């Protein structure tokens, strides 16, 4: 194979080309992982809900922070045709006085299905009152399993019983609690310590507590076989908005704009990568114009010459892919855990597929050049 | 019997007032097993004529017939196949592939045709031996002298047992002694294999090694000896 012979003969030159391709692969993979990490960090807790559909309060524009469903509405969803299982999910802002530094985040109250949380340390299952399972990125704030953390300014505490993963929301680690704890935090957030300070205000607090009882932000639904999200939306009517968890994840908090920007960054990196790889092989082809003319003059077809180029591209891109993957993994390993970096194998496989596609598209520039090389020039030496 | 017939071939580059006639009504034929030297000064049209016979250029008018086959009517694709199968081409600048050893350069020809067999390898080594290059078989072109490179290029042209050898200025980059050696070797191989050879040269001394000499001046046949 001529292509391989040429690579082996000019090892340094082709090693540098493979390295350059590797850097492009590493760049696109790192950008992909960072983009994915950004999206996961912003929406992981919503997007990873174990559900086929998420039911929001109508007209809240899929905004988790604004949606509020009463106990009666939760029951209506649960009883709707096509619903196999349903559990409420409550959302509440909390401020955590962590060992390293205090930070604002969210608590998610789950009515059930705590098994959906992958436990990376500690214990799983349903937390008891005052306990929480927390996204592992909270470790960066000095939080460890077994810590009891004060929540300010509401005078409540949560004890961390386990760490889960990929469950951040708006880049902060989510605290998963049971629904009773969620309700307690919600009431406390609304009244602060007021209920405990003045006897006169106790009736009001009790009234609010009663109103909050059983209410959640959204309902996560598992559908019966054959039932679609649209079917459920039609069944429930206009008082509710029904979407998939992925659609829920990409709604609110400026996500549509952010996703657009993230996709734009990835597209730009792919386009630039395609151009750079294409230009590499185009320049290589241009450097070999005389040689290609001679081989064509000897009787090589354009297809033969192009096959050699493709074989060379295949070898170099494969080397570049290995180098790039290694560099991207190394870059990821060197990043802090709170850094938005989520190397998903499926995305990287797509990235690698696109890199091969980019190289192929780039090779078309060279093919054009190969087709235009006149074999008669091999005999041309200022003589007619 | 004439293997190659060149009939009233003309070639004009450009058009209108910028037109340059490189060849003008060139006619000749070459017998099987003979060696023809095309002699002429720079700009006389020698290389253009060689390119047209090789199917690398289309003539503006006229015919090129090889063994009854009108080569000038072939498409670029079938012309490439024709060169691969019937023509042995030797370039002035050798055009050896720099990243292939001497023997691998010879094996390029069967590689272009599809596959390289053990027989091809044996044949390549045999040819290198005939040209006194058996010990240089694994050397890269950059490790060979000019004369050795030219001999490798000639051996490569012989790999596909061509009917016609087209040799462009084989001694242009060699001193007289080495040039004479190369032309002598070329003549021996051509006659020994009963093939036809056209050798383009501007050096009258080298042309004397051929069976016939065709002198080209300003694109016309000035003399046929």
Q: Specify the helix fraction band of chain A.
A: 40-55%
Low-confidence stretches of chain A: none
- Measured between the Cα atoms of the first and last residue of chain B, the distance is 18 Å
Largest interface: A-B, 27 and 40 residues
Describe the main β-sheet of chain B briefly.
6 strands, mixed
The whole-number mean of residue pLDDT values of chain B reads: 88
> How many domains would you count in the coordinates of chain B?
1
Secondary-structure-based class of chain A equals alpha+beta
Describe this structure in words.
The complex is a heterodimer of chains A (384) and B (225). Chain A has 384 residues and is α+β, with helices and mostly antiparallel strands. Chain A has two domains: 2-43 and 256-378, no CATH class; 53-243, no CATH class. Chain A is built from twelve helices and twelve strands. Chain A has helices spanning 2-9, 11-47, 71-79, 179-191, 194-197, 202-212, 229-236, 245-249, 255-287, 289-297, 302-333, 345-372; strands at residues 53-57, 83-97, 102-110, 119-122, 131-135, 148-152, 156-164, 168-169, 172-173, 175-178, 218-223, 240-243. In chain A, the strands form two sheets. In chain A, strands 2-3-10-5-7-6 form a six-stranded mixed barrel. In chain A, strands 8-9 form a two-stranded antiparallel ribbon. In chain A, β2 and β3 form a beta hairpin. The longest helix of chain A is centred in the first third of the chain and has 37 residues, at 11-47. Chain B is an alpha/beta fold and 225 residues long. Chain B has one domain (2-224): P-loop containing nucleotide triphosphate hydrolases (Rossmann fold). Chain B has helices at residues 46-53, 76-86, 102-113, 118-130, 146-158, 176-192, 204-207, and strands at 2-13, 20-31, 35-39, 61-66, 69-70, 87-90, 164-168, 196-201, 212-217, 220-224. In chain B, the strands form two sheets. Chain B has a six-stranded mixed beta sheet, sandwiched between helices. The A-B interface holds A 2, 5-6, 8-10, 290-291, 294-301, 304, 374-376, 378-384 and B 13, 20, 22, 42-43, 45-48, 50-51, 54, 56-57, 77, 80-85, 87, 89, 91-93, 95, 97-100, 104, 108-109, 111-113, 140, 168-169.
